[in-house]
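Q: Sequence in, structure out?
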Amino acid sequence: MVPQADVRQLSAALAAGALVIDVREPFEYSAGHVPGAVPMAMHLVPLRIGEIPVDRDVFIICATGNRSWQVCHFLSEHGIAASNVSGGTMAWQSAGFAIETASADAGVATTGGAHS
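A: Exactly. Output:
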């Protein structure tokens, strides 16, 4: 079974030092992501699994929670505990939490949202 977390739980966990990994494609990540989220496209997770810490709370996020659930399931099969963020980045943004966007051209990060 894959542990689930809502966006409010993720926000609290991030404040306590948790890690969030965004498994969307680079163009999706650049369009808007949870501040501090580490980009790791879903197809790269098997190649980068060694980068995922086992001594820290880890949350996996995508757009709506489907891809992140699959990644959490994969990680659990490899002994790594990670929580799926239910509703994904869409729920995060809908709840009014800040997002960062990055320009592919300039690499400029900006933030916005009611909770920033």
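The domain at 4-103 is CATH 3.40.250.10 (Oxidized Rhodanese; domain 1).
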